[in-house]
Amino acid sequence: MQKPQAPAPPQSPKISYEKEAKCTCGKTKRPPNCDGSHAKRSKTGFVTPSWQTQLTAESLLAAQEQ
Fold it and tell me: Which of 17, 45, 51, 60 is packed most tightly, with the most Cβ within 10 A?
């Protein structure tokens, strides 16, 4: 039995957070070999908790509608 594709949206922010963790250019120190091309991607790693709050807000709205 295959699992449904439902968990896919929560995984995408997690992937961006893992990419951010690999390079420290989005944090305090920038390695000399980093061109900063993925600095934007690293900032999405910091934004990751927002999708969790958005999901909880959506689940609360869905619970109220029922």
Answer: 45
